[in-house]
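Below is how a single chain appears once it has passed through the pipeline. First comes the sequence as given, then the structure the pipeline wrote out for it. We keep one example in the README because the format questions we get most often are answered faster by looking than by reading.
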Amino acid sequence: MGTPADRYLFRSEWRIAAHADQVYATLADVASYPSWWPQVHAARQLDDASGELRCRSLLPYDLVFLIRREVEDGADRILRATLDGDLAGSSQWTITPDGSGTLAVFDEDVVVRKALIRLAGPLARPVLRFNHDRMMQAGERGLRDHLSRREVTG
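Resulting structure:
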């Protein structure tokens, strides 16, 4: 899958003070991401199993990619998708109860196809990792806030 310079393996672990079923349902609803995840600027549903996401973190460029659901397993709380566009590869959420809350683990294995990023090559790698980390941290905060608001109003 791509050259080593273009391939990225990411893992993020989110600890959320909400029931695992709530976390799973929110993460399964990709169309809602822009309402709680600041770096997801747009989500457009294309059909029952796919959509398009437009994301931007700290760096001044958008990543646009198609996301196609491959696994939506509510019993084991696993969400897996393939990505195609500025990023190509796969991502997976694994959601498990963790004490009084939930652990949501995000794994991503992608190749960067966006020309601007590919041109920067290995020199940009630490910056791109930092950018991804900031996006994931903001997503975790956004999900926590979103679910705590739902709990108060729901």
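The chain has a mean pLDDT of 93.

See the next section for the split statistics.
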